[in-house]
From TrEMBL:
PROSITE patterns, sorted: JMJC (PS51184)
Stretches that traverse the bilayer: none
Organism in which the protein naturally occurs: Qipengyuania citrea
Protein name: Cupin-like domain-containing protein
Domain JmjC: 112-278
Length: 343
């Protein structure tokens, strides 16, 4: 079992609990509440939850019965790192990835269960529909009305650095316990975010070790803690994380399973904002100061403010991508960017 929570967690505000009677009530809550919240027992009737309450071994057997005979990608951490999947001293990853059938991977869980120096083992963001038969149908999503991506996360006791995601997220604790530490989006300046392109799992992460924060190296983290919320999930509980909220995630037991649902409220044909940020770094950040200021005004005019004056003087049929985007005009932008980036 995990050690007692470090003192920083004990001092945090708790994520507020909400009660919902059914999926319709949850949907209404998701539309109305811009803050994170927890729903206790939301998925307590899932077969995966009930099997896990019997034993970790029974939960693994349940998953094996439904796993397709295809290779899974697994993350394997270094022994003695307290389950923290992060960078090493040279800013390489302190873990490796491998591929194997799920029975072989689960055998690794069994072999390392009682070892004090066992490596972290983690299967991350596995698409439930692609890798399992019947798992989605047996354990029904509480947010199916939003056409989410169904992902399952299976691991030993792990620590995942604070990061954020563009989609909205409902994370359901199925086996073991999870601790989520959540921060508002604007706290990125106080979380000491690391590299944008060299990341553990595709998203930039906080460089702060939450189990031993170095306030000399990261003094602004003290301000981030003033805005932090924490929740510890039991099997069957779920936490809602709005878009772009930072979250540090810990699996607290020797075997943990999380199911999460990601969805976005905007059409799928729209681009990813992170890609726009990367392109702006490439094209704008290192320009002379006066030129950057000019481009800031252009971004405000066309993107962030986008007043009616942008298009009032242009005939409607000639506004092109200045009109609200459709799948066709979004495709035109994407094709134009591909042409220009490949020159």
């Amino acid at each position: 079992m995990a050690e007692a929570a470090p003192s920083i967690f004990a001092q945090m505000k708790h994520v507020e609990s909400r009660e919902v009677a059914d999926a319709a009530a949850l949907s209404a809550l998701l539309d109305d509440d811009p803050q994170p919240f927890v729903v206790r027992g939301l998925v307590k009737d899932w077969p995966l939850v009930t099997r896990g309450l019997n034993s970790a071994h029974e939960a693994r057997e349940y998953l094996l019965e439904r796993a397709r005979p295809v290779p899974f990608t697994v993350t394997i951490g270094q022994p003695g790192r307290d389950g923290r999947l992060f960078y090493d001293d040279d800013f390489e990853m302190n873990f490796r990835t491998a591929r194997g059938k799920l029975p072989d991977i689960f055998r690794g869980f069994d072999d390392n269960e009682d070892r004090s120096d066992a490596p972290a083992i983690y299967l991350t963001s596995v698409d439930m529909k692609l890798f399992f038969d019947g798992l989605v149908e047996d354990n029904l999503s509480p947010v199916d009305d939003r056409d989410p991506l169904h992902s399952i996360w299976i691991g030993t006791a792990t620590r995942i650095a604070a990061h954020n995601d563009f989609p909205r997220n409902l994370a359901c604790c199925a086996v073991g316990r999870r601790r989520f530490t959540i921060f508002p989006p604007e706290q990125f300046e106080n979380l000491y975010v690391g590299p944008l392109e060299n990341t553990p799992a595709g998203r930039a992460v906080s460089m702060v070790d939450f189990h031993g924060p170095d306030f000399d190296a990261h003094p602004r983290f003290a301000e981030a803690l003033r805005h932090a919320q924490v929740v510890e999930l039991e099997p069957g509980d779920a936490v809602y994380i709005p878009s772009m909220w930072w979250h540090h995630v810990e699996g607290l037991d020797p075997f943990n399973v999380l199911v999460n649902y990601w969805w976005r409220d905007t059409p799928a044909f729209l681009g990813q904002p992170q890609e726009a940020l990367n392109h702006a770094i490439l094209a704008i950040r290192d320009l002379p100061h006066e030129e950057r200021n000019f481009w800031r005004k252009l971004f405000d005019h066309y993107v962030f403010e986008n007043p009616a004056e942008v298009t009032d003087h242009i005939p409607e049929q000639a506004r092109g991508i200045l009109s609200p985007l459709t799948s066709r005009t979004a495709g035109q932008i994407r094709a134009f960017l591909l042409r220009t980036l490949n020159r």
